[in-house]
């Protein structure tokens, strides 16, 4: 077979899977930092400790148990800690409680090994930021980092020093509810966000008592659940695993992430909580990760449901031997570990290694020196003004203006009357989205859209509020009131979408339509002829074709967190010009899924004039809104694309730049996006791949050149022998404002 670029002429570059250009890599810690010193000193201390531990105490370090939803611990916990049989908790939180248990560990247990408190601090602890998918829509790693930094401050003040975040699963299927917890569909983008979030949680040294150690989850390919059904099986080529699903995990390792969580799914026939290939070969041997891996909730025990193990002892053996160090909630290591040792089905060395990794993280956290949390900090940190201000700012930057016909937005603050309609218009509970950490049941601080609008406009503007219908309602009795409110107003704002529980864990949907009769409500309100603004609140892409066609303005706000209402009002009334972009594709129809921008070409690309091409009879192949899409209240022009070279060597670099100009009348942000296309290669390549982006702010008339650097990591891929390499041949570069269109350039990678 003749190939345009054969492997034989390529200079093999065995590189890591990370696709990050060097320009955005930041050092994890300055030389001779406290972190490095701590790292250097801990290994002898770990050895000394392990030498003194009984088998039971070792297995105790590998056990994590669950507290209650309200953060309290259970009756059996203090004694387990005292006996050294419990190494970490999840859900137990609150400075006082944490200190109480820690005192038992430090004063009453034989070896005085501190316990570690973990919690799902996903997008804030008490000050809730936008859901991660929303935050990712900012296309601003700095904002993601800022949010994680604040979450770490609040969580650590409550004694939580370990977060089960970031979730870095790539999700190409919006039926999967957990798409809301990640950064969307793209591995490069996901890697940038993964690094930013790890940095935000951990800083340069997670030994800082105001930091938490992060956990990259769910390792791995959990987002590829068949049919978008949570916990379902996954099956894929090693190429797809390495190019799509692994990069954000590798990026987290590069950023110094301290822990990993294995997932619930099986991957190519082997459950990921018992998978030596991903847990040991890739994570430890290839990537040199030296932190620990925790299982997901009872995922060790679930190896029996997967039918990988027929007994509890076999499940423990498979997981521990594969490289899962801590068992979350199920207790099979503890129950069967000693027996497995006696039967030579588990070696002491394997147990010691797992214990070593756990102790290493505890040492790095500084827990041996500083086991207690300062109880005074909780009151001052949580929901501080500074944190609320940050939540509001990050939320405004997360919003995506999907459509804005005839400049309906921004609204004037001097309108005589505004109708505020919809199930989500005056809702506090849902606005914090899935994983609300310690804010669950404490939603009094959440600013609703109605409150945000009222605070924004003057007393002379009349607000006509009408709910219309519930989120998933069948009952249309409230429509008449909503229609009346719209008829009596200058403009109608309709807040519609999903409830928080409709996305997140165990929240897959087979339809992406607006639940209940919400679309009918929109139709009824729009029939009044009043200008209408749709405010979407949702945890996944929705199929909103009618709205996209018939409504004048659509603002995607996701679940925007504690300050949601204020932030949305900031954007609706033009105090903030929206600049977010979609980190996921919005399909037209659920039947198009999986639909993602970086797909392959096929031998018969879609062609409307030719029946025998790759398409559907009943729906267009294109998305409703593409990856990277998002508008502004101003306009931008991109011009004058320049490449630093027409030809580079396979190990060379080149820069690509464009001039961006704000041609409108308002200051605003644009996210400039660089995509490449490998024109022909020894394995088929995506039509486009994102390899750089930058969110910039420009004043009216201002012009700036934005430059990206392409490196071998940007241009390489895994060849047929699973070697990462750059092949000679032609490449295209696109620089634009979404994954569609843009300015084009060409260059070539020479033979050598
Ligand atoms: C199960 C979820 O899959 C995981 O994301 C979470 O961290 C654990 N439960 C602990 O709550």
Question: What is this structure's SSE topology?
Answer:
Elements: H1 34-52, H2 55-61, E1 63-66, H3 77-82, E2 88-90, H4 95-108, E3 116-119, H5 132-136, H6 141-157, E4 162-163, H7 187-202, E5 215-219, H8 238-245, H9 247-254, E6 259-262, E7 266-267, E8 270-271, H10 276-286, E9 292-294, H11 312-322, E10 327-328, H12 332-342, H13 348-364, H14 377-381, H15 385-398, E11 400-404, E12 417-421, H16 449-456, E13 462-466, H17 479-487, E14 491-497, H18 518-526, E15 532-537, H19 545-550, E16 553-556, H20 564-572, E17 636-643, E18 647-648, E19 654-662, E20 668-678, E21 689-698, E22 703-710, H21 712-715, E23 717-718, E24 724-725, E25 729-736, E26 743-749
Parallel strand pairs: 1-2, 1-10, 2-3, 3-4, 5-6, 6-9, 12-13, 12-14, 14-15, 15-16, 18-26
Antiparallel strand pairs: 7-8, 11-16, 17-19, 19-22, 20-21, 20-25, 23-24, 25-26
The protein binds 1-deoxynojirimycin.
Residues 90, 120, 164, 217, 296-297, 505 line the site of 1-deoxynojirimycin (NOJ).
Kindly describe this structure:
By secondary structure, the chain is an alpha/beta fold. Among the domains are: 391-585, 3-Layer(aba) Sandwich (Rossmann fold), CATH 3.40.50; 634-749, Immunoglobulins (Immunoglobulin-like, Sandwich), CATH 2.60.40.10. 28% of the residues lie in helices and 17% in strands. The protein contains 21 helices and 26 strands. The strands form 7 sheets. A 6-stranded mixed sheet has the order 11-16-15-14-12-13, sandwiched between helices. It has a 5-stranded parallel sheet with strand order 4-3-2-1-10. The longest helix is centred in the N-terminal third of the chain and has 19 residues, at 34-52. The radius of gyration is 26 Å and the shape is globular.
